[in-house]
Every structure is written in structure tokens, then in C-alpha cells.
Design goal:
Layout (H helix, E strand, L loop, with lengths): L2 E5 L3 H13 L3 E5 L2 H10 L4 E4 L8 H9 L6 E5 L4 H10 L3 E4 L4 H16 L8 E3 L2 E4 L4 E4 L4 E2 L3 H11 L5 E3 H8 L8 H15 L9 E4 L3 E4 L2
Parallel strand pairs: 1-2, 1-3, 3-4, 4-5
Antiparallel strand pairs: 6-7, 7-8, 8-9, 10-12, 11-12
Helix pairs in contact: 2-3, 6-8
């Protein structure tokens, strides 16, 4: 059973999400503060986190960073902050998706299903690929440097990278990436792509400002150049 940790300081939201998620056979833990969320995640590691940014003790972005220090668990942000700067900060910190309050429960459930589908998607056998000083093994979901240091990627970073690496040298359109990684309702969220490609370049390119392998084709999409 998939375990979901819901973090929000509004009791009515915690109650509504607990009821709706349990009705759909998810195992649910709840926390009303950032400190409680980090403690709960460490004690009973979740398969997915739904996280409000406006917590009373620790800002949600700091909670994301705290989780990312030791786990790649998918994080869906649930927040009343609708500004693009808040979305960028959350995505940069390691969030996988962003839902703005007020929200529909069915929309949130659809996004949870989309994330869990990405986690459960089987990988076709492919040879290990190289990006600069890094070797990427898509079958084992592992990246390591030439000095054998392993590089950790979040589930969404993996999904974006995999879509590009499975089409070496070919243009993958923005629309295709958004639909295949996040779903058809995300066709206009090009800021997601910019943030995740920037994250991948920082982790994998020798010079992230002048990428040689993860290439942007302005206005069209992205390309993996072997």
C-alpha cells in the first residue's frame, strides 16, 4: 500500500485529505508543522509527500530541502502561494509538482496517480550512457561519476532525463516532455522544464552554463547530444 504523508496546518484540509486518500486505499500519515513532518518522514518513510508551503514553524521550501538531504521521495506542493517565484523556489528545492489552493480533490488525486505511475513505469533495457564525466544507467536508475561517486536524482529528474536519453540526438518537444512526464493537463507549464533541465545540468554537465549534452532548442524543446 502506498504511504502518503500530508503536511498542512489547516485541520480541515488534513481531515478531508485523510478521508479521501484512505477511501482510495492509500496509507495516510499527517503532520501540521514542518518539524513534525520531518520527524514523521524519518520514522515512517513515505512513498509520497503532499506539502503545504505556509507552515507555522518552518517554511515549506526548507522542509523540501530537509527531505532532499536524505530521500528522493516525490513531493507535491500544495500551497496558497500562486506566484511564479514561489513555484520556482519549490521546484528548485526539489519538489516534483505544484498545486495551488484552492484546489479540487480530484485534481490532486490525478497528480498523485501521475507521480506514482512515473515511479512504477518499467525501464526498457538500454546500454549505459555518458554525459561528460558521468555514466547513466537507466535500467538501474543510477548515475555515477568517473571517480565512482554516485549522483542522486529525484523521480521527476529521472523521468525528464530518461525521455531525452532514450532519443539521442533527436529533438524532444516541450509539449511531448510535459505530457509524458507530468500529463496532458500540463501543456503550458514550460517553467517546469526550465527548472528541471537547470537542475540536471548542475548535476551532470561539466559547465552547466554552457551545456554540451542537455541542449535547449529555444521555443521548441530539448535534445540529448551524445
Amino acid at each position: 500500500m502506498t504511504r502518503i504523508l500530508v503536511v498542512d496546518d489547516e485541520p480541515q484540509i488534513l481531515r478531508a485529505l485523510r478521508i479521501n486518500l484512505r477511501a482510495r486505499r492509500y496509507d495516510v500519515d499527517v503532520a501540521a508543522t514542518g518539524a513534525a513532518a520531518l520527524k514523521a518522514a524519518a520514522s515512517h518513510p513515505p512513498d509520497l509527500v503532499v506539502l503545504d508551503l505556509g507552515l507555522p514553524d518552518i517554511d515549506g521550501v526548507e522542509v523540501i530541502r530537509g527531505l532532499r538531504g536524505w530521500t528522493a521521495v516525490p513531493i507535491i506542493v500544495l500551497s496558497g502561494r500562486a506566484g511564479s517565484e514561489d513555484k520556482v523556489a519549490a521546484l528548485d528545492a526539489g519538489a516534483d509538482d505544484y498545486v495551488t489552493k484552492p484546489f479540487g480533490v480530484e485534481e490532486l488525486l490525478a497528480r498523485i496517480r501521475a507521480v506514482t505511475r512515473r515511479l512504477g513505469a518499467p525501464s526498457e533495457a538500454v546500454p549505459a550512457l555518458r554525459i561528460g564525466r558521468h555514466i547513466v544507467d537507466l535500467a538501474d536508475h543510477r548515475v555515477w561519476r568517473d571517480d565512482d561517486t554516485e549522483v542522486k536524482l529525484t523521480p521527476t529528474q529521472w523521468s525528464v532525463l530518461e525521455k531525452l536519453l532514450r532519443h539521442p540526438g533527436k529533438l524532444v518537444s516541450q509539449r511531448q516532455l510535459l505530457q509524458e512526464v507530468w500529463g496532458p493537463e500540463y501543456q503550458n507549464e514550460t517553467n517546469y522544464l526550465r527548472q528541471y533541465l537547470a537542475q540536471l545540468r548542475r548535476k551532470l554537465e561539466d559547465d552547466p552554463a554552457r551545456p554540451r549534452h542537455l541542449i535547449t532548442e529555444p521555443g521548441m524543446g530539448y535534445r540529448y547530444r551524445p
